[in-house]
Here is the input.
Amino acid sequence: MNKGQAFVNLGELKEGVAPLLLNLLVSSTGDYDILVSSANSGKLRMGSSQWSVPYSIAIGGTAVNLAGTRTVPGTSKSRKPGLIKDALPIEFIIGDVSNKRAGVYSDVISVTVTAR
Here is the structure.
């Protein structure tokens, strides 16, 4: 993590859940929402070419459609008075990679946490 940015390497792309451990850490004194958007609308793109691999993510077990900005409710399950720290697992689910050109594929995901 650097200045609020995390660079995630998914390794060699294979269809299914990418084998990586990643959590979104949220500290909150109340309920919150997580807004998620993808620069490429849920596609890992190879540079400026038309080659792409579809993918989706799940945050805290909730599937996120990356076709536009999506809101994920982030209410802490065991809400008690005071500061609560939630560690929400992030999963990357890679779509069909067959017949795709070899190369480096990327996307930029923006995650914003807001108080509800």
